[in-house]
Design brief:
Length: 139
């Protein structure tokens, strides 16, 4: 896959939104259909929000790096951060059969990313969390 763009973002949701807009435009230029573009935006928002909210303890400066790669058939997003070790794939899937008021808070975003993507991987390497998601550009 060809690396299309690297983003280095701070702990601002507005930065995630701006990166999401640019990622959507880059994928559309590669011929991506609506659902894969939506899936990329959801993955960036959910994974990035988890980093911003949970990965950095105390007053540590929060950052994340996002890399978008693609070829003619697929795209990949890799989200990297230097925060505390956290493997989102170890989170239990939410019990969607329970009424909303009985469900535990959290876990739905990661579940959604798993459902929207063809592949989701986590690794801890060189003191960094790396989550990589992949999906087809077209259905």
């Amino acid at each position: 896959m060809e690396l299309l763009k690297t983003f280095r973002l701070g702990a601002e949701l507005a930065e995630l939104n701006a990166a999401g807009d640019e990622i959507a435009a880059l994928l559309e230029a590669r011929g991506a259909e609506t659902l894969p573009v939506y899936a990329a935006r959801v993955a960036l928002e959910e994974l990035g929000t988890n980093v911003i909210k949970y990965s950095y303890p105390g007053e540590a400066p929060c950052w994340l790096e996002v890399r978008l790669s693609a070829d003619d058939e697929r795209f990949a997003l890799e989200v990297e951060d230097g925060g505390a070790p956290f493997d989102p794939l170890q989170a239990a899937a939410p019990d969607l059969t329970l009424p909303l008021e009985e469900r535990e808070i959290g876990g739905l975003g990661v579940h959604l990313v798993r459902q929207l993507m063809d592949r989701v991987e986590y690794r801890r390497e060189d003191g960094k969390n790396r989550v990589r998601v992949e999906r087809r550009l077209r259905e």
